[in-house]
Amino acid sequence: MAIIIAGERSGVGKTTVTLALLAALKARSPSNQTLVQSFKVGPDYIDPMFHSYITGLPCRNLDPVLTSEDYVRSCFAKHSRSAEYSLIEGVMGLFDGATGKDDTASTAHIARLLNVPVVLILNCASTSRSIAAIAHGYRTFDPRIQIAGVVLNRVGSDRHLELLTQALEPLNLPILGVLRRQDNIAIPDRHLGLIPTAEMSDLNGIIDRLAYLGETCFDWEKLLPLMGSPHPLSHGDRGVIVAPHLLREMGLGGGGLRIAIAQDKAFSFYYADNLDLFREMGAELVPWSPISDRTLPENIQGLYFGGGFPEVFAAELTENKTARESVYKAIAVGVPTYAECGGLMYLCDHIVDFEDKSFPMVNIFATAAKMGKRLTLGYRQAIALRDSPLVKKGDQVWGHEFHRSSLTEISDRPLYSLQGYDSHLQYPTEGWQKHQVHASYNHLHFGSQRHLLSRFLVNCQKSNN
């Protein structure tokens, strides 16, 4: 069993409540050995970094669009079975889905799939008795959703709390937590959300304050039984592991494949499940830093550049000329390379930041990545227009875009034609393919698209023969 933290809307305090609960759970263990497994609904990268920093375990994304309903069930069962407590952070408002037309990929969708109770956060600012109408509406909107209780956020005073409690009493809906207005803990953010953990100098202090908030503001006698019950292993759990005979059929599994993965302040957006699948398919992921390492690691057969904030660290990436040259030479001789979003930007000729300053990059693609105010956001179904190290022409894959940059030139060899989750929404062609590079703004989850990863690794193995 677990609980899923939901909000009545975006910005109501889901992340603060989730982090406070996680921090308090860890702090309640004298030896700090309590196993707390966290999950995040949707394609988020940054919130899971905070989860993992607190729990010491990789946070797992639960996304039925990028993967599948079966994968969500099996991923949750696999990773919650050995934890003492499990906690899921929702996305947007409880019933807000991928298109707004229904609740597909919403917090409610995941709550139904996993049959877990919802803890609903209510914004109590500027309201008193009306809070009961809001809570009643959320409780009855979908009878399949079990709302275990509410957390009252932004409570102004003892008198305000008294009025809220009186209003909610007829609903017999437990109040599981109360956060005052002054309890809000500010976590700094920028153009794509929270600032990642690796860049925060006072992170431990923030975690300590969150742990105190969690310990003092929640009803643990009611919460612990909800989070601590063992969750039965679903029949789909075995689907997360790649069987050895399948690896042999793909020509993989013998070991020896070394994939250089860019991991530093500029490149940090990776799904934990994707990294696990690399290893399960016989690849060794070799971390390196395009900011601080002078060259690529030795004896590598593939390159992996995830997303992140290369625009923020563009000056440092430019300064490390030998690393850029090392990447250029590896790609030029045919090392298979997968680059998504920030990785695509790094392989461009230049990055132009928000102040219109231009910084030379690897120069594989004759275009610049220019930062702008417009946010490109959403799920994309991508239809491959040509072969790449990951896809065959005609393949259809699901991905997610989340960026404020755009490319100044259109590729003469685009990877994809795109449409949104709503199939009526069409987008321009996207992605670049050159040498043995697959580069795109589309972030991919390999959980239900493992053939893409296996094809990439097969190509890496072939390039080494």
Question: Can you walk through the features of this model?
Answer:
This protein has 465 residues and is α/β, with parallel strands linked by helices. The protein has helices at residues 14-27, 46-55, 69-80, 107-114, 130-141, 158-168, 203-217, 220-228, 244-249, 272-280, 314-319, 321-332, 342-346, 450-463; strands at residues 3-7, 36-41, 60-62, 85-93, 118-123, 147-155, 175-180, 189-190, 193-194, 257-262, 267-269, 283-288, 302-305, 307-308, 337-340, 348-352, 358-360, 365-384, 396-407, 416-420, 426-430, 432-434, 437-440, 443-444. The strands form 5 sheets. The chain has a 7-stranded parallel β-sheet, sandwiched between helices. Strands 16, 17, 18, 19, 20, 21 and 24 form a 7-stranded mixed β-sheet that branches. Strands 12-10-13-15-23-22 form a 6-stranded mixed β-sheet. Strand 22 and strand 23 form a beta hairpin. Helix 1 packs parallel to helix 2 and helix 1 packs across helix 7.
Keywords:
alpha/beta, 2 domains, seven-stranded parallel sheet, 31% helix
Provide a concise account of the structure shown.
It is built from 14 helices and 24 strands. By secondary structure, it is of the alpha/beta class.
CATH superfamily of the largest domain: P-loop containing nucleotide triphosphate hydrolases
Counting DSSP H or I runs of 4 or more residues, the number of helices is 14
Q: What is the CATH class designation of the largest domain?
A: Alpha Beta
Residues in helix, % = 25-40%
Distance between the termini: 48 Å
* Uncertain stretches: 231-241
Q: Would you report the number of β strands? A: 24
Q: Which whole number gives the mean pLDDT?
A: 91
| Coarse morphology | elongated
Write down the Rg: 23 Å
Structural category = alpha/beta
Keywords: ATP-binding, Cobalamin biosynthesis, Glutamine amidotransferase, Ligase, Magnesium, Nucleotide-binding
GO molecular function, one term: ATP binding
Cofactor: Mg(2+)
EC number: 6.3.5.11
